[in-house]
Design brief:
Largest sheet: 9 strands, mixed
Oligomer: single chain
Shape: elongated
CATH class of the largest domain: Alpha Beta
Structural class: alpha/beta
Radius of gyration: 24 Å
CATH architecture of the largest domain: 3-Layer(aba) Sandwich
Number of helices: 11
Number of domains: 2
Distance between the termini: 71 Å
CATH superfamily of the largest domain: Periplasmic binding protein-like II
Order of helices and strands: HHEHEHEEEHEHEHEEEHEHHH
Strand content: 15-25%
Length: 285
């Protein structure tokens, strides 16, 4: 009987001890605080929003806001002191065709972005060559029947100047060929979301976007017979892709530094980033 009482006393002592232990919440465990403002690329916005959501769960005292009006607005906002991070579809610390470099800004690779030519579901064409894309987006080819489709006017949807997706598509799919700028079969949209809506709702339309925005309500075309897939980007068969960058004014510190590190971490790169149809930066050798 004595041994039973002893065991009971030990059990009560264990319960009392465990109830006295303070198990910290995520908020109490993380002392990181601050505010991060991110502007720029709409192509990178799905990645940024997902990363922000996950990061805030780990660090509830950090406030993050993100907006996207096109790549060029990212480093511009950083230069003006409006944003801590400028999301861009090219390395804005270097000159690229049409844009001068942003002095004093540091690039941080955060993703590999595959871009695709996309068409409305009414279009029967499933593959185009670089030469055919050049003809369509320059305005020289105006009917789908001229590239193997039905007899219908091609509606070209382009991104406005300042878009990183536009820069990448022009250089890597059109091989530098200039876009058409006007016509009754031509329209421009500001963001990747606007492009998605336009392609889904405009019969006979063609445009381009990163894979994160491609839906079942459109068709991502093969280019030269090669599909825009992670495997084809990694093995070098599909050429229309670019790195996504976070630009900062000098080296980042505090919450901004930790957020970029989280986006670059293996956990995020091989998890949420891949699910959003981006490719981890480590995949490219």
């Amino acid at each position: 009987m004595k041994w039973f009482k002893s065991i009971a006393m030990l059990a009560l002592l264990a319960v009392f001890t465990l109830s006295s232990v303070h198990i910290p919440t995520a908020e109490a465990a993380s002392k990181l605080s601050g505010k991060i403002v991110i502007n720029g690329s709409s192509a990178l916005l799905p990645l940024t929003l997902q990363a922000a959501n996950e990061f805030k769960k780990l660090h509830p005292k950090v406030k993050i806001s993100a907006s996207a009006a096109g790549s060029v607005t990212g480093p511009q906002a950083v230069r003006k002191g409006i944003a801590n991070i400028g999301a861009v579809d090219w390395d804005a610390s270097k000159d690229v065709p049409g844009f001068k470099k942003f002095e004093g800004q540091v690039p941080h690779k955060v993703a590999v972005i595959p871009f695709a030519a996309v068409v409305n579901k009414s279009v029967s064409v499933t593959t185009l060559t670089n030469k055919q894309l050049q003809g369509i987006f320059s305005g020289k080819i105006t009917n789908w029947k001229d590239v193997g489709g039905k007899d219908a006017k091609i509606i070209v949807v382009n991104r406005t100047f300042g878009s990183g997706t536009r820069v990448n598509f022009q250089q890597k799919a059109l091989l530098g060929t200039a876009f058409m700028t006007k016509g009754d079969n031509y329209k421009e949209v500001k963001t990747s979301g606007d492009m998605k809506t336009a392609i889904e709702t405009t019969p006979n339309a063609i445009g381009y976007m990163d894979l994160a925005y491609v839906t079942t309500k459109m068709t991502a075309l093969k280019i030269n017979g090669v599909a825009a897939t992670e495997a084809n980007v990694v093995n070098g068969k599909y050429k229309v892709w670019g790195y996504g960058y976070y630009m900062t004014k000098g080296q980042p510190t505090g919450a901004t530094k930790e957020f970029i590190a989280y986006v670059q971490s293996a956990k995020f790169q091989n998890g949420s980033l891949k699910k959003l149809k981006f490719i981890p930066i480590s995949a490219m050798k």
